[in-house]
Amino acid sequence: MAWILVIIAGALEIIWASGLKYASSTMEWIGVFALIAISFILLIQAYKRIPVAIAYTVFVGIGTVGTYAIGVYLGEPYSFAQILFLIILLTGIVGMKLSTTEKGEAS
């Protein structure tokens, strides 16, 4: 369950991080700040069952890769070197996730 919270928080990070560039009205900024708050509340709840360093690494990784992909989709420049390093980042994140157990699980 805690990993689901991290994934949802990471997905919200993609939305709010992308929204930072495009928010222009007061209501849009309120929406961005609300998404920031919700994503961190979910992440804090996940910290109760997952080690902080691992949960935060996965959260930031989801946000990094997702925000990069949204940026490319919206026309921002990209390079194959950047994509290579994102693959390396994803490899590390998946490795950390697979090598971590939640509190109460056997190692």
UniProtKB/TrEMBL annotation:
Protein's recorded name? Multidrug efflux SMR transporter
What's the main place this protein lives?
membrane
- Where, subcellularly, is it found? Cell membrane
Q: Give the species.
A: Paenibacillus agilis
* Annotated transmembrane regions: 27-47, 54-74, 80-98
One Pfam annotation reads Multi_Drug_Res
Q: Which GO terms describe its cellular component?
A: plasma membrane
Recorded family membership: Belongs to the drug/metabolite transporter (DMT) superfamily. Small multidrug resistance (SMR) (TC 2.A.7.1) family.
GO MF terms here are:
transmembrane transporter activity
Q: Which UniProt keywords apply?
A: Cell membrane, Membrane, Transmembrane, Transmembrane helix, Transport
InterPro entries, A to Z: EmrE-like, Small_drug/metabolite_transptr, Small_multidrug_res
- Keyword Membrane included in the entry's annotation: yes
SUPFAM superfamilies named in the record = Multidrug resistance efflux transporter EmrE
Transmembrane is among the record's keywords: yes
